[in-house]
Hints:
Layout: E1 8-11, H1 16-27, E2 32-36, H2 39-53, E3 57-61, H3 62-68, E4 71-74, H4 81-88, E5 96-99, H5 120-128, E6 133-136, H6 143-146, E7 157-162, H7 165-177, E8 181-184, H8 191-208, H9 256-262, H10 283-286
Parallel strand pairs: 1-2, 1-4, 2-3, 4-5, 5-6, 7-8
Antiparallel strand pairs: 6-7
Bound molecules: NADP nicotinamide-adenine-dinucleotide phosphate.
Residues 12, 14-18, 36-38, 41, 75-80, 83-84, 100-102, 104, 138-139, 141-143 line the site of NADP nicotinamide-adenine-dinucleotide phosphate.
Amino acid sequence: MENRPRSVAVIGGTGDLGSGLAWRLARAGYPVVIGSRASEKAVAHAQEMARRGRLEVTGAGNVEAAASADLVIVTVPFASQQATLESIRDVVQGKIVVDTTVPLMPPKVMRVQLPVEGSAARRAQMLLGDEVRVVSAFHNVAAAHLVSEEARLEDCDVLVCGNDTAARDVVVALADAIGFKAWHAGVIDNSAVAEALTSVLIFMNRRYGIAGAGIQITGTPTKEGWGPLQPAGTGPPPGGLAVRRQRRLRPGISSIPDIMACGSRAGVCAPHGCAGGQAVRPPEQDAEPARA
Ligand SMILES: NC(=O)c1ccc[n+]([C@@H]2O[C@H](COP(=O)([O-])OP(=O)(O)OC[C@H]3O[C@@H](n4cnc5c(N)ncnc54)[C@H](OP(=O)(O)O)[C@@H]3O)[C@@H](O)[C@H]2O)c1
């Protein structure tokens, strides 16, 4: 798979988080198939979403949806994570599966209760097997923000964990494409931190009356993320160059797919005919001045 998946399935996509992700992904130009335990429920949900936004969204049973897409996002409650993953296990072999599960155990959802495997994501990796590249993400995103036109998704950071760096790249790019600020956060075991943080955020929502607290990473990256901003082959000028990762559409970039394609670090970028990893706008616009 290139850096950009050709299609995305959202298992449990009739729920709060899944609906929001499906909606945002479809608006970013990804063909989306919503999965449900009941295919007719998924079809109705998808038809409504497609009609509302004139988007490319379809619906199917969970297994059919997972089989049809080359990237699969699982958005079901922790209590049903195991059964859901076992149901799609055969059809996701060789694919990237994005697990969003927070191991919440109602009624004590403001208390961190990680599973014996260490994290829900590690549990997913164990259940699906080593041929599946499990990546965890979106734990610290309130679903309500995904469906709100007023929400500033770029203020909400997403920690992306997984053992396969290339798979993480794909998911970082995916989250970036729908407007978040996504970060590589290390191996799948690190997902425990992102998952545990959600209980902390739920507590803080209650304590401070916040409508969906999220997280932000401070500091300015000085290494490339998924989209290096200087043209390939040119190193930083003498004195160093602080490079901020590209966040949103800028002059010279006509669409999110353009950014995605040129965010690939290797291979051929079809829209621009570059070798991947190249900036699509003049470097002087991309680079920030060196910092003291
Ligand atoms: N909501 C958030 O703001 C948020 C934020 C970050 C992470 N998360 C995590 O994302 C996951 C989904 O959260 P959510 O709030 O979207 O959940 P949800 O709305 O309660 O459920 C999502 C979907 O899961 C399926 N489902 C529900 N119970 C099931 C069961 N017993 N067995 C199999 N499938 C079942 C349902 O789909 P069908 O009936 O159509 O099959 C449902 O629409 C959770 O692990 C949650 O911790 C949520």
